[in-house]
Amino acid sequence: MTDFEAVLGELTSHHVSFIVIGGLAAIVHGSAHYTQDVDIVYQRSTENLDRLIAALAGSHPYLRGAPPGLPFTWNRATLHHGLNYTLTTSLGLVDVLGEIPGGGRYEDLAPGAKTVELFGSKCLCMTLDQLIRSKRAAGRPKDLQVLAELEAIRDEQQKP
Questions:
Q1: What phi and psi, each to the nearest 5 degrees, are found at residue 138?
Q2: Higher-confidence residue: 1 or 5?
Q3: Is residue 53 pLDDT above 90, yes or no?
Q4: Is the pTM of this model over 0.85?
Q5: Are 19 and 38 contacting, i.e. CB atoms less than 8 angstroms apart?
Q6: N or C, which end of the chain is more exposed by having fewer CB within 10 Å?
């Protein structure tokens, strides 16, 4: 089980520039769907990569689904040479994404994102419209399942 409070606490206490996306963002907007992980889009500056590395280093990040013993080093070079990582940590499941379909990079999403408080941490979160756009663009069955609910939430919010 993912410790959402601890993951978000580590990210915010290390001043990582990130945006909450995915299932947790859907819940922020009123979705009843369950999520097992924390999904974020992270800003890819050298300074922010160092903060992200420090934030998760103590939780022993490892590539989710990779065979045990596969060499994986959680450092700046790894993050710099890759983009999206689905991780297993001692705090639970964490997806750190440099770019997402239908949303782009941190710099593309941040101007429209909203500040929310989650589990005692203030952080940026995708807006409902950004989330709908990204779910539609991803097109995976699990994204399409929640898409109808998110659109219904948006329609309800737009009623006078």
A1: -65, -40
A2: 5
A3: yes
A4: yes
A5: no
A6: C
Integer CA distances (angstroms), 4 to 54, 128, 143, 159, in order: 17, 20, 21, 32
Distance CA 9, CA 6 (A): 5
DSSP β-bridge partners for residue 85: 96
Give the position of tokens 């699990």. Answer: 142
Is 61 exposed, middle or buried, given 0-12, 13-18 or 19+ CB atoms closer than 10 A? buried
DSSP labels, 87-124: EEETTEEEEEESEETTTEEHHHHTTT-EEEEETTEEEE
What's the maximum distance between 2 C-alpha atoms anywhere in the chain? Answer: 57
Nearest by Cα to 89 from 24, 16, 51, 37: 37
The mean pLDDT value for 58-76 works out to 95
Cα 149 from Cα 31, distance rounded (Å): 7
DSSP assignment, residue 44?
-
Instruction: Tell me which residue has tokens 């593309």.
Output: 108
Residue in the structure block whose two tokens are 């101007």: 111
What does the alpha-carbon distance between residue 77 and residue 21 come to, in Å, rounded to a whole number?
A: 24
pLDDT digits (tens, 9 = 90+) for 81-139: 999 999 999 999 999 999 999 999 999 999 999 999 999 999 999 999 999 999 999 98
